Amino acid sequence: MTETTQRRNTSQDGKGAPGTRGSTAIADPVVAKIAGMAAREIPEVHHLGGGMTRAFGAVRQRVPGGGGGSGVAQGVKVEVGERQAAVDLDVVVEYGAAIADTAADVRTNVINAVERMTGLEVVEVNIAVGDVHLPDEEEEDESEQEGRRVA
Prior knowledge:
The chain is α+β, with helices and mostly antiparallel strands. It contains 5 helices and 4 strands; from the N terminus they run ααβαββαβα. The protein has helices at residues 3-12, 28-40, 51-62, 99-118, 135-146, and strands spanning 45-48, 76-80, 84-94, 121-133. Strands 1, 2, 3 and 4 form a 4-stranded mixed sheet that branches. A hairpin with a 3-residue loop joins strand 2 (76-80) and strand 3. Helix 2 packs across helix 4 (99-118). The longest helix has 20 residues, at 99-118. The N and C termini lie far apart (64 Å). Mean pLDDT is 80; it is low at 1-11 and 53-57.
């Protein structure tokens, strides 16, 4: 009998709880995606990421092989340890939203989602509000795109 087989047999005998029969590593991008989705669930959040972050993200999405994807983690930075995680978010809020209340809602939602899905303790969620989205900005963005010859 090999050493691997012996270990497997002893763990199948119920001598160790399932949680002690191996390790689970959660990558930073996984936590970043979870945090990004949780932050976007708050209605007052218009975008994540500052102006330059969004611009680079748009360029990266158009470049073949540039890691475009859906950009869910855009504006999200995380540090993940063995049992804890810290999250930094760059947020653009809708005009008229109470920024302090929106930040509290985002923080609560991100903490709940990350802890529920990963089992990691979220030690902090830092939120930087970099811009306010005005209602008329949407119309300007659309009219600029209509005037372009190429997409």
